[in-house]
Amino acid sequence: MVPASFTPYFTATATAAGALIGLLFVAVSLRSDSVFGEGATAQGRANAGSAFTALVNCFFVSLVALLPQTGVGDVSITLAIISVLATIRLHREVGRMHLQLGMLVFGLLTYVAQLVNGVLAEVYQHSNGYVYFAAFLMIGQVSGALTRAWSLVEGRHLVAAAQQAEPAAPTSESSAP
């Protein structure tokens, strides 16, 4: 069960995640053609989807944690599984050159840690340590989501796509008669 002392924290994280989801929609709408349009890059879709997944994860874990007489175990398990599957699906399309392996590994590790923590929280329901760990995991997930959202605003996925589309410059060997 979530101690009452966590109510302000989970209220703040639910509010922040909800607001950040709204801002993510604004960021995506600024570059809608490059994220979800016909000329969208897989990297842009993966960044937007991964940021959305992390924020929704935090939003719903926080909302459930605010319900009286509930814990973070069941919701953490459910959302961790959904988030891992969504992350894998989103990144399957991205080419190796644009994968952002660090962010992918970070995201997957936080969801796997959330899954394990959720199982332990269910087994040891009277231990507050698992609630603390869930709270710290959400900080990491929001940090990752903000990093991905900011890369969308900066247009990093567009720069990578432009570099990939440029033809290779002829070398001195290929221009020789």
How do you describe this structure in short?
This protein is 74% helix and 0% strand. The chain has seven helices and no strands.
Task: Describe the model.
By secondary structure, the chain is mostly helical. The protein has one domain. It is built from seven helices and no strands. The protein has helices spanning 7-30, 32-35, 42-66, 73-91, 101-123, 129-154, 156-165. The radius of gyration is 20 Å and the shape is elongated. It starts with 6 loop residues before the first helix and ends in a 12-residue tail after the last helix. The relative contact order is 0.17.
Topology:
Blueprint: H1 7-30, H2 32-35, H3 42-66, H4 73-91, H5 101-123, H6 129-154, H7 156-165
Helix pairs in contact: 1-3, 1-6, 3-4, 3-6, 4-5, 5-6
Features:
177 residues; mainly alpha; 7 helices; 0% strand
Order of helices and strands: HHHHHHH
Low-confidence stretches: none
Number of domains: 1
Structural class: mainly alpha
- Percent strand equals under 5%
> What kind of sheet is the major sheet?
none
Instruction: Provide the gyration radius in Å.
Output: 20 Å
Question: How many β-strand runs?
Answer: 0
Q: Counting H and I runs of at least 4 residues, what is the number of helices?
A: 7
**Outline, from the CA principal axes?**
elongated
In angstroms, what separates the terminal alpha carbons? Answer: 78 Å
